[in-house]
Fold this protein.
Amino acid sequence: MQTASIRSDDVLEADGSIKLRKVVLADRLDMLGMEDIALKLTSLTAIKPLPVILDLRDVSFLASIGIRNIISSARALDQKGGRMVILLGNNELVKASA
Amino acid sequence: MAPPQPDAPTLSVQPSPLELRRCSEWLAERCQEEAVPPGPTGKLDLCLNEVLANLIDHGGAADVNCPVDLTLELADCGDRGLATPTIVDAGPAFDPLGVSRGPLPRTLQEAEPGGLGLLLVHRFMDERSYQRAGDRNVLKLGIYFSKDP
């Protein structure tokens, strides 16, 4: 059973500053999975006021603890002046959970 | 509430995060054996996960260090099947179905990051019942599924 994973890609401005950040979560966002990635998710999405795309299309299982972490990050980002867009794709279970 | 059938598949797990994965694997195998479609299997997996996570976080089951017993029953309801997991724990009396839920948030700022697990159980399960039986909590859930492929 695959646990959660997280990776990110930044789109940069000409001066090297970050224009857009894409964060991709994958596999199983349950209690154990979130223990593995929660800190990195927060550091990538909730520290700087950036436009963030959070891609959940490869998530196979989204438990409430995962939703909770995403909401917390989105709220923190919003308070800093950033914005988060979430990609859900065609994963019916994840769409229904979210 | 009728007790689970004696021959129904049963699993005992310790209330710990690591055991959630074992529970999910057990459930997936049982559902595959019984030809429960992937959609309802995923919803059962999610709801069992939420109930067990709730027991770990709030139910006190971890404190008493007693296993949580899971049973999965399958019933034939004509053109549909009914999958019924039962979760039994020895924690303090707690009816998760009796927890009141507020209205759904309309904005990010209204969204409270908590209480979502039981909301998912209410959303995904067609049948839900709870009773205190002796010193145990007995939670029974149910989801109908089409038997057509």
